[in-house]
What we know:
- This protein is α+β, with helices and mostly antiparallel strands.
- Among the domains are: 28-84; 173-223, no CATH class.
- The chain has 10 helices and 7 strands.
- A 4-stranded antiparallel sheet has the order 1-2-3-4.
- The chain is elongated, with a radius of gyration of 25 Å.
Amino acid sequence: MGMMKYVESLLGKNEQILWRARQHWIVLTANFVINLFLFVVIWAIYGAAGTLGAGALGDFLRNNRGIALIALAIPIVWFGWEFLQWWAEEYLITTTRVVQTEGLINKHTKDSALEKINDITLNQSVVGRILNYGDLAIITGSDMGTNVLKRLANPVEFKKTLLEQKHQLSNGDDYGSRKAPTAVQSDDEDPLKKIAQLDDLRKSGAISEVEYQQAKAKLLTKL
C-alpha cells in the first residue's frame, strides 16, 4: 500500500495512469535457483548432523545444528529482499509521460514526456515472445537520450498504449468526444454525469480503458 501511495503522489493535477507494468518474473529466476540451492545444502547439513557417527566432524555438526537452523533463514531473507525490490520497480504510462520508479527504501524516479519521445523500439528473443517479455527502448529528444526498460512484462501492450496516447496528444483528439458523442455533447452538462456515462460505455465495451481515462482526465479539469 505504501508503494502504491508513493506512485500516486507523483501524479500531477488531473494526470491519470493508463498502464502499470513491472519487469517480468523471469528476472527473479536466477536468484530463486541460487537461494533454493543454498537452502537445500544447509538443510542437508542440518540433517546430516543427526545421522553422522562419532568423530570430529560428527561432533562438530551436532554441536552446531542450531547455527545451521538459523542459517536456513539466509536464502529466504535474501530472496524476499530481491522480490520486494522487484515489486517496488514500476513502469507507468500516464496521460502525459512515462514514469519509471524504483527503490524500496531510497526511491528513484525517471520521467519521459510523451511529447519528447521520438521513437520506441522493442526487442524480443524467442523465449521472450513465448513468455511475453522484452526490452523496450524509449528514445527521446532530451538529454536523457534513451531509456531502456529491460525484460518488461507484456511489452507489446505497453508499447501500443504508449503510442496510442502519444498519438492522441499530438493530434489533440479526445476519444470520449469522438467515440461517445452521446455521452459528451454539451459543455453545459454536469462533468460527473458525463464521467458516469463514459464509465457505462467502458463497461459495455464501446470504448477502451485508455479512452475512458483520457476523456475522464479532461472532464475533471471542468470541476
